[in-house]
Design a protein that fits this description.
The complex is a heterodimer of chains A (about 150) and B (about 100). Chain A is of the alpha+beta class and about 150 residues long. Chain A has helices at about 1-20, 25-30, 35, 40-50; strands spanning about 55, 60-65, 65-70, 75-80, 85-90, 100-105, 110-115, 125-130, 135-145. Chain A folds into 2 domains: about 1-30; about 35-145, Immunoglobulin-like (Sandwich), CATH 2.60.40. Chain A starts with a helix and ends with a strand. Chain B has no helices and 7 strands. The chains are: A alpha+beta (about 150), B mainly beta (about 100). The interface of A and B includes residues 73, 102, 109 and 112 of A.
């Protein structure tokens, strides 16, 4: 019995390994699982932007209501007039996983994105913008009356 | 089957605005099914690619904290009327969908 179980575990294990390797490379290479699973803001930022300095910037505008009734749908706009925008990344400090979304913009893009996110608690929203190879951030506090993650 | 994606573009001068709404549950995995009292497994879009005439203009890496039936908007330059814009998504169960529209 023991031997059969061991064999079965070995077989399942190697199947997982094979399918793991065969996953589309684009998905594996880009989607940063460590950063998305981090439960702490600083850890998530460090995992997503390893060994990089982030400076505060006045040129990033986070467009969001300061008081939100329903945390399940929080409209968020990020606008920036920093030059050569490469990406805009949104974090919510008090969410179970602070990294919410990253938007990678090509050369022709305007420094703007708009989406709707979930917030579990009242929290700071942090936008990190990569501009001409450098990182900048801005914060805005949002009061949430009813959490939207559960 | 009807596409899960509603994709709209609007060109004004040099700037094209892209707006999309995608039908998707965006389950976090934190919600409990009131009938079975078990967690509803996570199910969410984690990657989006938008192409303009075949070239990638924007990609998104998303977590489960994007709201149900996600909304996305951004703007880019360099397009003209008649150009094609395509959006494709992949979720954490490797489901995919895509749609294409022409800039009018």
């Amino acid at each position: 019995m023991l031997r059969r179980d061991t064999l079965r575990y070995l077989a399942t294990g190697s199947m997982t390994l094979i399918f793991g390797i065969l996953k589309p490379i684009s998905v594996l290479a880009k989607w940063n699982k460590a950063a998305f699973s981090s439960v702490d803001l600083d850890e998530a930022i460090a995992a997503y932007f390893p060994d990089q300095v982030i400076k505060k910037s006045e040129q990033i505008n986070i467009g969001v209501h300061s008081v939100v009734e329903n945390g399940a749908v929080v409209p968020v706009k990020v606008k920036t007039d920093l030059p050569k925008i490469e990406s805009i990344t949104i974090f919510v400090e008090k969410n179970p996983n602070p990294l919410i979304a990253s938007f990678n913009l090509s050369n022709g893009c305007v420094g703007f994105i708009s989406t709707r996110i979930k917030m579990q608690n009242s929290s700071d929203i942090i936008a990190v913008v990569k501009s001409d190879g450098l990182l900048f951030n801005s914060r805005k506090f949002v009061e949430v009356h009813e959490g939207g993650c559960g | 089957m009807e596409s899960s994606i509603r994709l709209q573009t609007k060109i004004r001068g040099r700037v094209t605005t892209v707006r999309a709404i995608i039908r998707h549950p965006m389950e976090t995995g934190f919600r409990i099914d009131s009938e079975t009292t078990e967690f509803i497994p996570s199910h969410y879009i984690n990657e989006i690619i938008i192409r303009h005439n075949g070239n990638v203009v924007m990609t998104c890496d998303w977590s489960r904290a994007i709201s149900k039936n996600p909304y996305l908007s951004f703007m880019f330059e360099g397009a003209t009327v008649g150009d094609k814009v395509e959006l494709s998504w992949t979720d954490n169960r490797n489901n995919v969908d895509s749609t294409e529209t022409q800039i009018k």
